[in-house]
Design goal:
The complex is a heterodimer of chains A (about 110) and B (about 110). Chain A has no helices and eleven strands. Chain A is mainly β. Classes of the chains: A mainly beta (about 110), B mainly beta (about 110).
Chain lengths: ~110, ~110
């Protein structure tokens, strides 16, 4: 089992819809959780961080964390074509950070 | 100016050559990391360093070496490059209890 698992996609949604991205992790000691957005050929860009169970909202983005079930998700409301990218989930089980392979999202106009 | 600067941005070289990728940061972070990214495989950790005297292997360190010359500088070397080291390489920094911040990457092609 990989430490951080994400569906590779591609996930395709129409413009204006809600995109839902999921991530599960294996190490229960993980305390910090992050979502990065990566455009093709570019570096990962931090878009959300979450540290406690529940929801955290920032603009059109909502991160959800459930430590008991070991999953973290990212919802993107009112999806825009500019949201088309690969989304990386990252967790911090020890002193370093472990990344999922990413989910490729395509938002169709 | 970028907080995390990687040089060069692109490099094409031949099998067997020694290559150095450099990373410098102005964020004042103690922790620095080198990753490689291959299509469909996500980010894989090569080496990381928590301060100038600390060097740690990541999951794919074979064929690579690093040097932490100062808090702000962390270089990655390929002693004898081989084609399967063709990839996109990222340097990242991290402050205590903070997320990682990435440089713009180095696209390396080994012929």
């Amino acid at each position: 089992q990989k430490e951080v698992e994400q569906n590779s996609g591609p996930l395709s949604v129409p413009e204006g819809a809600i995109a839902s991205l999921n991530c599960t992790y294996s190490d229960r000691v993980s305390q910090s959780f992050f979502w990065y957005r990566q455009y093709s050929g570019k570096s990962p860009e931090l878009i959300m961080s979450i540290y406690s169970n529940g929801d955290k909202e920032d603009g059109r983005f909502t991160a959800q964390l459930n430590k008991a079930s070991q999953y973290v998700s990212l919802l993107i409301r009112d999806s825009q074509p500019s949201d088309s990218a690969t989304y990386l989930c990252a967790v911090t089980p020890q002193n370093d950070m472990r990344f999922g392979a990413g989910t490729r999202l395509t938002v169709k106009p | 100016d970028a907080d995390v600067t990687q040089t060069p941005r692109n490099r094409i070289t031949k099998t067997g050559k020694r290559i150095m990728l450099e990373c410098s940061q102005t964020k004042g972070h103690d922790r620095m990391y080198w990753y490689r990214q291959d299509p469909g495989l996500g980010l894989r950790l090569i080496y990381y360093s928590f301060d100038v005297k600390d060097i740690n292997k990541g999951e794919i360190s074979d064929g690579y070496s690093v040097s932490r010359q100062a808090q702000a500088k962390f270089s990655l070397s390929l002693e004898s490059a081989i084609p399967n080291q063709t990839a996109l390489y990222f340097c990242a920094t991290q402050g205590s209890n903070q997320p990682q911040h990435f440089g713009d990457g180095t696209r390396l092609s080994i012929l």
